[in-house]
Amino acid sequence: MVSKDRRFRNRTFLSSFKVAISGILLVSKQEKNFQFHLVCAAIAIIFGCIFSISWIEWFFVCSAIFGVLTFELLNSSIERVVDLVTEDYHDLAKAAKDMASGAVFLFAVYAVIIGMIVFLPKIWSLLLYHEIQLISYTIFENTGVFG
């Protein structure tokens, strides 16, 4: 059924983008979980730059970031619609909210797995490299070799 009320329809293609950006800004201001995911996304992007990850790794990292943020947006909208429809406790309302939250959780787990696959080997090799440097420095310093 098409709504005849023009107040809720986008008049132009550009207005669709304005409404979308408004929704993203709204959720980023009001939802603590979305803010947490934005911080995690920033950390992942910084790590990606530091470790110069490959384009395929960027693809998976960005897919994980955008997936989690998208699911968080959907979860927040479902929660708001359920709250709009009923103020009373209802098993179906709880189920809808729990299912939407579960979808975010599953994608967040996927994102963590992607992050571990991409970044842990790089972090591990960096730590191992510095540990070897520290050990060699300690050995050479204490034995008097080269100095």
TrEMBL record:
Localization in the cell: Cell membrane
Membrane topology term: Multi-pass membrane protein
UniProt: a divalent metal cation binding residues: 31, 79
Keywords in alphabetical order: ATP-binding, Cell membrane, Kinase, Lipid biosynthesis, Lipid metabolism, Magnesium, Membrane, Metal-binding, Nucleotide-binding, Phospholipid biosynthesis, Phospholipid metabolism, Transferase, Transmembrane, Transmembrane helix
Short name of any one Pfam family annotated for the protein: DAGK_prokar
Cofactor note: Mn(2+), Zn(2+), Cd(2+) and Co(2+) support activity to lesser extents.
GO BP terms, alphabetized: phospholipid biosynthetic process
Predominant location: membrane
Signal sequence segment: none
GO cellular component, one term: plasma membrane
Regions crossing the membrane: 34-51, 98-120
Catalytic residues as annotated in Swiss-Prot or TrEMBL: 72
Cofactor(s) annotated in UniProt: Mg(2+)
GO molecular function: ATP binding; kinase activity; metal ion binding
UniProt binding sites for ATP: 31, 79, 97-98
UniProt binding sites for substrate: 72, 101
PANTHER family: DIACYLGLYCEROL KINASE
Family label: Belongs to the bacterial diacylglycerol kinase family.
Listed name of the protein: Undecaprenol kinase
Organism (species): Bacillus oleivorans
